[in-house]
Amino acid sequence: MAARRVRRCGRALGAFLFVVVLALSAASRAAIFNPETFTLANGMQVVVVPNHRAPVVFHMVWYKVGAADDPIGESGLAHLLEHLMFKGTEKVPGGQFSEIVARNGGNENAFTSLDYTAYFQKIA
User: Fold this and answer.
1) Cβ distance 88 to 122 under 8 Å?
2) Residue 37: in which H helix or E strand, if any?
C-alpha cells in the first residue's frame, strides 16, 4: 500500500516538473519571438521578428492563396504561378534575382500549400 502511494506521488511530482519545464521553455521562447506587426497602406500585413542571436536575414513573403484556391479542373495553378515568379520581369530578367541572392552568400526558394504560397530568401 505504501509503495503504491510513493509511486503515485512520484508520478505526480514527475508530471508537475514536466509542466514546469514546458511553462519555462514557453516563456523563454516568447521572449525570443517578440514580433512587431503592422499593415501597409496597400493592405499588406507585415510581421517583423528581430533576432540578434545570429547575423542572418531571413525574408519571407506569404500570399494567402494556395492549391485550395485553384479553379475546379485546373489543379496545380497556384504551384505553376509560384514557379512563374522565378521567370523574371522586364526590369529583372529571369535568374538575376537568384544570382544577386547567391552572390551575397544566400539562398532562396518557394513553396505552395493548400491555403498559402510563400517565397523566401536567407542571407548570412
Assistant:
1) no
2) strand 36-39
Q: Taking the model in full, what pTM does it have?
A: 0.65
84: three-class secondary structure by DSSP: helix
Q: Name the one residue in this structure whose C-alpha cell is 500500500.
A: 1
Counts for the chain of helices (H) and strands (E), in that order:
3, 5
Q: Where are the alpha helices (DSSP H) in the chain?
A: 2-32, 77-84, 96-103
Q: Which neighbouring-strand residues pair with 61?
A: 119
Distance in angstroms (rounded) separating the CA atoms of residues 84 and 107: 18
CA dihedral defined by 56, 62, 68, 70, rounded to 10 degrees?
A: -110
pLDDT digits (tens, 9 = 90+) for 37-87: 999 999 999 999 988 888 999 999 999 999 999 999 889 989 998 888 889
- Long-range pairs for 77-83 at CB < 8 Å and ≥24 separation? 78/112, 78/117, 79/112, 81/117, 82/110, 82/111, 82/112, 82/117, 82/119, 83/110
Catalytic residue IDs: 82
C-alpha cell at 90: 522586364
